[in-house]
Design a protein that fits this description.
homodimer, 433 residues, alpha/beta, Rossmann fold, Alpha-Beta Plaits, 3 domains, 17 strands
């Protein structure tokens, strides 16, 4: 049996690592059937001795350093679930150099070290699996790489961060931002540093990976325009729903074109949009393709078990390929394209906008606002003025036609400077239909 | 360049075949980038000389019989898009025996010849790709086989037939069945024999394939309970929506258990159900898993381009594996499990039911109906009597609790026999929540 067993080394016994261990135990029969062989966790490593004691493997298989895994020639697959870009980068690099296949769930590492990791795997003729790095157990990486291989991908619309989708869902149900955030924390939906979720860093890293795969050119996370959900007020969610039938979702958007659009921001979408049904901590990705049409995948994008599912799908694929006798050569990635995609500056991106002005309740205000927008070429589709006054100001809500972001910004900066008419900073939220 | 090109033979120049030809031409660069090599349609075959003339390939590459493709040793992949189980079966069997990889979009063939085809491919050590056989370009086969490889699949809920989903969508918008069917025909959404769609044969074949993959044991199409949508009346769609917030979808259902449930029938689902948002000719599959949680995939499940996308994804996968030098050995299927899944007889399946009785408007009728249901152990969750009378009968609508189908059938057969009280056959529609 030993010769028929594929050995893996698992580094990191946090939530995801423990999920992988538990699921491999529980579903050993399923995994064996799919791989045609046994998969054995031959060694685990974690700096935390308490975790090692708790993991259920005999002490001889546990170590505080991943070096023991790198040094073990019987281990063919290294699973990196440490996270971050420090020790994880060292481990992945050393494992690839040692000729071992790597499976990782690490979006931060891939978003920043894509070129280095993929090139190294290509040179060393080993596989790198990273299905769990985006949307955990929902097979979006495979779908783009294999399932849609004959397609030119035209655009991606993703709800890639469950925390912010949960918060916006709860706000639509009546909670204030702070209450919703607190509830997300209680449910364990937030990263240790909540700003990684709230400010869109997490979603931008995932979009960088999906965009790079879809375009075949690198989309660096740093080139992606980011806007968080921290400024969103419940009032606008309610108005947009009741007046215009829009719901607010934390969207990651990528559009192919002469220049590529790549951006992460809260976005109003119509209630009949395929992503409008995605609520709470669920994630989804809408892939618009030239041949297969629009394809949507959705599911849980985080959590111990969903992440374990994604990691194990990679382990199975590599183990199956090793078992079939070619050393998993079919899974070796192509050399990554060297160039970056040309990303459009946000000022050149065109969107429709939801605008809420807080204006004094006086004649000629509407003429002033619409005149100022018109001078910058911003055309108004609908306008809606509310009677109720808040500290001497009334809300004036407009939805624009498609407009260049630079024009909106210049128009709003002029309007917001008219303190006798406009009482607070204008709220502007992009719309995708 | 020639040595670096993988040659395919394409048999069948109908809608799908022409879609494959056109897309391979149009997206040649994308395909080359994904495969690491050129893919060339070296020969095509079709019985229809007019199609051969119209396909754009030089006459030397065209033939009326597929034998020319089988005889050409330079062709490594045979693409079967003839459809049906006659010539298609002969072609696939001969191609596999000749040691060629096969890509097929043929659900009927796979549903009936699964064991033979997969065993033969296993013995001959060649690949069989069939992504397009279910939901065309939506990568459901890959997702179950690879993306969810570490999961035990607990249940499947699919909208696998676009024609019936289109008809039910249009009926919910006010059309009668016949009008909706006519519109579906006009839009080219029907198979030549519309009963294949309407009566659930098409969906049952697709569920047979998905079920076999998910359970690792065969689910023969003939063992799947089928009920068509031909009996559905607009009245019930409207009542269930307004009274109970249900929408009607043509569902294919598979549930794991001591016995497996496998059935295709129109089903009421709540408006917040993930499949309620799937309208018109769109298809979707909800996969409930033990580890990744619920995963939904949706998109266009038919049509020239979506089907071509599915076929090409298989071509790319096989070409890529050939190119990497192992002769696509990693893609050779495992020997299929010999046994059939144990399918529960429909009488033993438990569901909630929507019931519409057409009863005389007299006292004690409610007591009679509820008494008769109660004697068979059918418990009522809600009841709703409408005032309006239709040819002397009023509709009495009930939703039951979970109940064994055999019990409902016995109860209804007794009730419907009471001609002095019940004026026409009772409408019964299953509910899934």
């Amino acid at each position: 049996m030993a010769g028929n067993t594929i050995k893996i080394g698992l580094v990191g016994l946090g939530t995801v690592g423990m999920g992988v261990l538990r699921t491999l135990r529980k579903n050993a029969a399923v995994v064996r059937a799919r791989c045609g062989t046994n998969v054995e966790v031959a060694r685990v490593a974690d700096r935390d001795a308490a975790r090692l004691r708790a993991c259920g493997l005999p002490p001889a298989k546990c170590s505080g350093s991943f070096q023991a895994i790198l040094d073990d020639p019987s281990i063919e697959i290294v699973v990196e679930v440490i996270g971050g870009t420090g020790a994880a980068k060292e481990l992945v690099t050393k494992a690839l150099k040692a000729g071992k296949h790597v499976v990782t769930a690490n979006k931060a590492l891939l978003a920043s070290e894509w070129q280095g990791i993929l090139s190294l795997a290509h040179r060393k003729k080993v596989a790198v699996g990273y299905e769990a790095s985006v949307m955990a157990g929902v097979p979006v990486i495979r779908s783009i790489e294999a399932g849609l291989a004959g397609n030119r991908i035209q655009s991606l619309f993703g709800i890639l961060n469950g925390t912010t989708n949960f918060i916006l869902t709860r706000m639509a149900q009546g909670l204030e931002f702070d209450q919703a955030l607190q509830e997300a924390r209680k449910r364990g939906l937030c990263e240790a540093d909540a700003s990684l979720d709230i400010d869109g860093y997490d979603a931008a890293q995932k979009l960088a990976i999906l965009g790079t795969l879809s375009l075949g050119r690198r989309v660096p996370a740093a080139s992606i325009y980011r806007e968080g959900i921290g400024q969103i007020e419940r009032f606008d969610i309610e108005e947009a729903r009741s007046q215009f039938d829009y719901v607010l979702r934390p969207l990651a958007v990528l559009k192919r074109g002469a220049q590529v659009e790549a951006r992460v921001h809260p976005t109003f979408i119509p209630t009949h949009h395929p992503l409008a049904a995605i609520e709470n901590e669920f994630n989804a990705l809408l892939i618009n393709t030239d041949t297969a049409g629009p394809i949507t995948l959705s599911g849980k994008g985080a959590g111990e078990k969903p992440a374990a599912s994604g990691v194990i799908s990679d382990i199975v694929e590599v183990a199956r390929a090793i078992r079939k006798g070619d050393g998993a050569g079919t899974l070796v990635p192509a050399a990554p394209a060297a160039g970056n995609a040309r990303i459009a500056p946000i000022e050149e991106v065109q969107s429709k906008f939801y605008l809420r002005f807080s204006v004094v309740d006086r004649p000629k205000v509407l003429a002033f606002i619409s005149g100022a927008l018109g001078r910058h070429g911003v055309s108004i589709a609908t306008c809606h003025q509310l009677g109720r006054s808040e500290r001497g100001a009334v809300p004036l809500i407009m939805v624009t036609h498609l407009t260049r972001e630079g024009a909106i910004r210049r128009a709003l900066s002029g309007i917001d400077a008219s303190h006798r008419i406009v009482k607070r900073k204008t709220v502007a939220v992009r719309i995708e239909e």
